[in-house]
Each structure stands twice: as structure tokens, then as C-alpha cells.
Amino acid sequence: MTPNTETIDAANARTPLTTLARSLGIATTFIIPALLLRFSGIQATPVLSLVIYGAAVIGASFLLAWAAEAAQIDVSGGLAIAVLALIAVLPEYAVDLYYAFTAGHNPAYVQYAAANMTGSNRLLMGIGWPVVVLIAVAVARKATGKAARALDLEPSNRVELGFLLIAGVAAFLIPATGQIHLIFGIALLAWFGCYLYKLSRGDVEEPDLIGAAAALGKLPDHARRVTVVAMLIVAAAVILACAKPFANSLIDAGTQLGIDKFLLVQWLAPLASEAPEFIIAIIFAARGKGTAAIATLISSKVNQWTLLVGSLPLAHLLGGGGPALVLDSRQIEEMLLTATQTLMGIALILALRFHRFSAWALLALFVVQFPITSTTGRLTLCGIYAVIALAALIVNRQHILPTLSAPFAPSTRRHGAHPRPRGKHPHPAANPGH
Question: Among residues 429, 135, 120, which one has the least CA distance to residue 303?
């Protein structure tokens, strides 16, 4: 072996460690100030607390995302997948479950539990889905030189759509009854369990990793497993330590700044917790892996619409409340908006093709909601979502039955050993036709 070859090999060997060390260092700089503030007894202003704890949530979310990605190499079996899923969604749910738990003995917090849940769901479908599709289509157009109009999904993605469609239709019971009842919550949790079981029974593909997760994946088996477990434990501990002060600082900062506290809780907290997943999905789409990226976000929507919503009445009960999380008129409107948006998003892609105009429609309707503050305006927007959903269901009517039956089919292919599939998909991701 020549000296030059030895130098190249040494550099290649150091690259994963360098990437991992740099990534961990950046995440740690976001986390440490929050831990110092949390345990030192120092009193900071609400706005400063919001910034510090929000940064820690983002940093810990990245740790969880990297570790969960790399864990796909080793994790198998339904129980392991369930545990990994609960850890992976912790950043999104910790704040919301705190609000729901507190609402059990302080009814004023019910509005915040509903706000955070509806905000996280609408952000995912209103920004996450369309942005990833538009980027994927643009990348495919650049790569092929042809006008790409749609992103094709994998046949296996019909399973996620089936679970989401059934849960999405059932969720209309919430605005219809004005509450999230414990029995309904248990049913959603059971449906989420069926989802995990379904994925655990499918064929496993080698995960496709990028960035820090790829660096973790290149470590020796023992070192990788120890590092992944340590990252999961540290990140989960940080999330649990920061969830309460972050949640309270959102409310206090709203008071200090004169901003609607409901809106802060609805949009800022989910944006902080979901940022890492959005960034990873965008990177996948920018690298020509748009199908893998949107599959990840579709699966995340299943998690939110089943696990998150189903957990709220249970947290409310454990906090000293009754068997139902009762919503006021504003929260019912927000829930109806979220349910109709969900139905529209599913209906548009039942044919397993995510058209560019569908992405623009979801994005435009998401943006247009912000200046709408009246009940009439919100109900009108619900009507627009519903009309588009109905039209899409008619156009894609031949795909409704296959989608509804997909969760009950004998087997499915899943990508990696994680309930959020991040597998390898054929390229180009976007289809220029139709």
C-alpha cells in the first residue's frame, strides 16, 4: 500500500467520526444552556426562556432523529419498533401531553392541548408534504430536463394511506361530539398498535442514511449500538426536562409580547419539534429521494393522527380530569379544519401520485388560514377543504376500496426497521407524465 493510499484510507476512516462529532457538538451547544437554566435556579424572562428551551428541543430532536435513523440497521420485532416509535415522536408529543395532563386539574390548559395537536398536524400536511413534493419535482425536472408534474409513491405506501384514511374519517367524531373521549382515544391507540404490527410483519429493506445518521451507521456494530442507545437516552431526558418549562414559557411569552397565546402554542411549539424531521425530509427530496421523503412524512401523519390524538384523553385523565377532553367552540373549529385538511390530503394522493398542483393547493390553503380569524371564515375554509376532498374522492374512486383494504392485506414491504419508512426508492422520484 502506497503512502498516498494510506493517507486516503485514514481520511476516509476519520470522515464518519468527524461528521458525527461535529453534528453532536452543534446539538450539544443548543442543549447545554437549557439544562443550565433548568437546574441552576436562574430566573430568565419568558421570551429568553422560550428561546433557550426551544433551542434545546430542536437540538434534542435532531439527536433523536439521527439515532432513530441509525437504529433501523439493528432494530427488528414489533415491541422494539413500538418503543422506537414512542421515542422518535417524543419531541412532538411531550409538550402536548403536558398540556393535556395539566388540563386535568386546570381546565384553562385544555385550549393549549388542542392548539398544539391541531398545529402539529396541519404543519405536517400544510407545509411538510407540499414543500417536499415541490422540491422533489424540481430536482427531477433538473435531472431529466423534462417537465415533471407529479411525485410517484410506492405501492407499499397505500398501507399508510389506508390507516390514515380510516383514522381520518373516524376523527370527524371529535368535532361532531365536541370532545375527545377516552374510549375513542383507546381505539386510536389500538389502531396505531395495528399499524406498528402491520409494518413489523413486512419485508425489511436496508435503510438509506444521510449525514450524522450515515456516520453512525458506519461505526462498528457494538460502538454504533452503544452510541445510538446513549443518544436516545440523553435526548429523551432533555426533552422530558425541558417540556414543562418550554410549554409554560410559550404561554408567558405570549402574555409578555401581547401575542395570542393560543397561536403561539399552536404553531411555534410544533415548528420547533418537527424542524429536524422536515429538514431530513427536505434533504432526501433535494438528493432525488422524494418518494422516500414523502413516505416518511405520510407515516408521521399516521403517528400524529393516531398516537398523539389518542394519548390526549389518557393524559387528561391521569392529570385528574374526567374521561373526556371537552373542547370549546374555537377548538372544535380548529379540529374540524384539521380533519377536513387531512381528508383532502389523503384524497388527493389515493392514486399514489402526488401532483404538483395538489402540493400547491395544500400549501396555499395552509397559508391563507392565518389572516382568517372569524368563525365564518374558518368554517368557509373547512368547506373548501371538504369540497376539494369530495372532488378528489370522486376522481380517485377506484382507489378507495384498495386503500381501505390495504391495512388488512397479508403483508407489506417496509423500509428499515422503523415505523417511519426511510428506504431506498427508484429514481427519478418524480413522474413527468399526466
Answer: 120
